[in-house]
Design a protein that fits this description.
The structure is a single chain. The protein has 485 residues and is α/β, with parallel strands linked by helices. It folds into two domains: 330 residues, Alkaline Phosphatase, subunit A (3-Layer(aba) Sandwich); 113 residues, Gyrase A, domain 2, CATH 3.30.1360. It is 32% helix and 20% strand. It is built from 18 helices and 21 strands. Strands 1, 2, 5, 6, 7, 10, 11, 19, 20 and 21 form a ten-stranded mixed sheet that branches. It has a five-stranded mixed sheet with strand order 13-14-15-17-16. A two-stranded antiparallel sheet has the order 3-4. Helix 2 crosses helix 9. The termini are far apart. Zinc ion (ZN) binds next to loops.
Length: 485
């Protein structure tokens, strides 16, 4: 394609005309000449927030052990930053609630996105969508007058970024991480990108750029063929196809070098734009993934509670309990949630827990106090029981599942998330193994940019990750902040 040199204004016009007339990504492919953008403020900092859905910490460990080739681009980034090896999701560890938590610093009890829960007053099993009653990090940036952009990070849509808004831009290219990185590179180069109805050029790099990719989640669930790969027949194959997508061990099969190589391309785009040294990079996940297979243990769980003398009823979203139902049960696949419509008393509650804890499929449970302590929404129930892998509480009890993945469980494979920070103001080459939580990310990023934490944030600033961190702060008990929640 012929290279044209155009100024930013003409380029925008060209993009709009071509995009409008031809209805395709012609303008984006025009050329690679960088328009002369105004220089960013000296000293101003940027945030690149990457979220790899389903990137459990164990996946990172697996990718860096034989027979896999590792994640060299990610490891180079970690050598310049901080890796948290003991970062946890909240309850439930499902996508919408946890994506919301990461960007608000608030747990579901505050932001109100709990995925599925029983509303006692309305006698209704509710399902949430994009609900969020808390302020997002994007809204903090907007409040400070700073430009923002999001590539498919839906938790920011209309909450700090908007379709067709060249200063606070939302894009949804679909596809894989590869397509989203390509759009991010366009954005950083000042190339027109397609939003909802318009081709848009951001006049300056966004101070907050969020990119969401669900490749690992799709592969981890193993529900259908994905990215040209067949469904894996067993647990080893399920894990293998997920890890290989990350490491790019088989470029022939994927047509690209894996998500790790794409990360390298993205960081190179920051260097090319001249803002790498001023960019704080955060890579986080909402949850990991836990393998499950075989028949559901739900019928036994229901029978066990019924065997203690309770009238038990399993509910699906939109359903109500019968008037005489005493215990309502629901699930999103792995963990079972129980709500007692009549108070069983502490002895009755204890007997239910003990009966379920004696089962071979029992993985663990959270009682009322522990659910509240972890920020679960009141509608998440009075008791949550998660199964020992590969058991599950899927509603379809007639079906025997092949190797599949799901993540609404406190099992570490799902609950322990990947979290890393790098860039200005952050310690270099440090591993932090004290407990940190998904709620801590947004307050920490806001602090690094000298912005207020999002209103409603419950997390703490991860001071132990900051370059100016001193041992006295440790002696003062910085990590204990996490234990107080
Ligand atoms: Zn997810």
């Amino acid at each position: 394609m012929k290279t044209q040199r155009v100024n930013p204004g003409n380029r925008l016009l060209l993009g709009l005309i071509l995009g409008f007339c031809l209805g395709g990504p012609v303008a984006a492919a025009q050329d690679t000449v960088l328009p002369a953008l105004p220089p960013a403020d000296e000293g101003s900092l940027y945030v690149l927030y990457l979220n790899w859905d389903g990137f459990g910490y164990d996946l990172y460990e697996r990718a860096n052990q034989p027979p896999y080739p590792g994640t060299p681009n990610l490891n180079r980034l970690l050598a310049e930053g901080v890796l948290f090896t003991n970062a946890s999701a909240g309850v439930p560890s499902l996508t919408a609630p946890m994506q919301t938590t990461l960007l608000t610093g608030a747990w579901p009890a505050v932001h109100g996105n709990y995925y599925r829960g029983y509303d006692r007053e309305a006698n209704l099993l509710r399902q949430t969508g994009r609900e969020n009653a808390a302020e997002t990090l994007g809204e903090v940036f907007v409040r400070a007058g700073l430009p923002t952009a999001s590539i498919q990070q839906f938790a920011l849509l209309d909450r700090g970024v908007w379709w067709d808004n060249p200063r606070h831009l939302y894009l949804e290219p679909g596809g894989r991480f590869a397509e989203r990185v390509a759009r991010a590179v366009d954005l950083l180069q000042g190339t027109p990108v397609e939003s909802l109805h318009e081709w848009v050029v951001m006049p300056e790099p966004p101070r907050l750029l969020a990119i969401y990719a669900d490749d690992l989640d799709v592969l981890g669930h193993n529900e259908h063929p994905a990215f040209g790969l067949p469904t894996a027949p067993d647990e080893a194959g399920r894990l293998d196809r997920t890890v290989r997508h990350l490491t790019g061990e088989d470029p022939e099969a994927y047509g690209f070098g894996g998500m790790d190589e794409l990360l390298g391309r993205l960081l190179q785009a920051l260097r090319d734009r001249g803002i790498y040294e001023r960019t704080i990079i955060a890579l986080a996940s909402d949850h990991g993934m836990t393998g499950f297979s075989g028949r559901s243990s739900l019928p036994d769980l229901l029978a066990t509670v019924a065997g203690l003398g309770y009238r038990v009823q399993f509910l699906r979203p939109g359903q109500s309990a019968f008037p005489d139902t005493q215990v309502v049960v629901w699930s999103a696949g792995l963990q079972a949630h129980l709500t007692f419509r009549e108070d069983p008393g502490s002895e009755g509650y204890r007997r239910v827990v003990e009966s379920l804890a004696g089962k071979e499929y029992y993985g663990g449970h959270l009682d009322r106090e522990e659910l509240a302590r972890r920020g679960a929404h009141p509608q998440s129930g009075d008791l949550v029981v998660w199964p020992k892998p590969p058991n599950h509480f899927k509603a379809d009890s007639a079906r025997s599942y092949p190797a599949r993945g799901q993540h609404d469980t406190l099992d570490p494979s799902s609950h322990r998330i990947f979290l890393a920070l790098a860039g200005p103001g952050i310690r270099k080459g440090v591993i932090i193994d004290t407990p940190v939580y998904a709620v801590d990310l947004a307050p920490t990023l806001a602090h690094l940019l000298n912005l207020p934490a999002p209103a409603g944030a419950q997390g703490r600033v991860l001071v132990e990750a900051l370059a100016n961190y001193t041992a006295e702060e440790e002696a003062d008990g910085a990590p204990q902040g996490s234990d107080s929640r």
